[in-house]
Amino acid sequence: xxxxxxxxxxxxxxxxxxxxxxxxxxxxxxxxxxxxxxxxxxxxxxxxxxxxxxxxxxxxxxxxxxxxxxxxxxxxxxxxxxxxxxxxxxxxxxxxxxxxxxxxxxxxxxxxxxxxxxxxxxxxxxxxxxxxxxxxxxxxxxxxxxxxxxxxxxxxxxxxxxxxxxxxxxxxxxxxxxxxxxxxxxxxxxxxxxxxxxxxxxxxxxxxxxxxxxxxxxxxxxxxxxxxxxxxxxxxxxxxxxxxxxxxxxxxxxxxxxxxxxxxxxxxxxxxxxxxxxxxxxxxxxxxxxxxxxxxxxxxxxxxxxxxxxxxxxxxxxxxxxxxxxxxxxxxxxxxxxxxxxxxxxxxxxxxxxxxxxxxxxxx
Length: 364
Prior knowledge:
Order of helices and strands: EHEEHHEHEHHEHEEHHEHEEHEEHHH
Strand content: 15-25%
Mean pLDDT: 89
Distance between the termini: 19 Å
Largest sheet: 7 strands, parallel
Number of strands: 13
Number of helices: 14
Low-confidence stretches: 359-364
């Protein structure tokens, strides 16, 4: 029997990792893996990879209904002789664990953030230690998982991978700063103290770069607080909100500068894609993310103050050569540590160990 893998996704995961997920699917298919993509109905077919089988379920705001709809897919997965179910988002762990236990599937739980460590208590009683593996995207998250699990379940490090674009897609080397700088600010959409400190540093940046535009990625029910602050700072004409649409983040990779003003505690494809595209980045220091390295992959802000944000943003917008060098260093780091081929290899290794099965390679 050859390994057959089901990848269980939801809208929050695909919104954050759509491009990387599609590359992962293609990479696994290229290795001869039989694959099923399980995605919410509201995700358009055209957004996902055309390869492999695909099942859909209808998401509901009522958790028991979503649970029932996902679990009802079990018999169809049995018919396809699925051997491993992999939950790509922490919000799906419990559903995937129940599905695996009912149908005797091996189980892979993919952690994305420090918050996922706190989810463990809700799924522990459903896990079968010899048939379950936890995957962590960074060493700090792996350490926290292992501390919580105390050896009861295997944990493996699986750094997320992204596609490395060709040289022609990278920022053009030029000494002069951009005439109309485009800056992406990636947030949760909440007006946290860290985001407020960054925004209060923008008026002096705009004074030095009057054509600069700042595009805020991240929406929430309290987004209006960001607008109010921008109005009080008299920078509304320089600030825009990026409309939320599945897959929209791949449009953000043409920026001159990328800012992550708050520690989100989550491994994000957008940050890694930014690095892969050699776009210079300024980020709030985040203890969960070991790939945010000062002067290697980004410039870090330790104690965010408006003056520090002003200084760093003006420096990277005004010193083009320095900004491009930072972006190139980040790209080299991704090439060494976060390629999609490495993620595919780690995924295959984990699934092979779980199932003891061989892979189905296409006939010559």
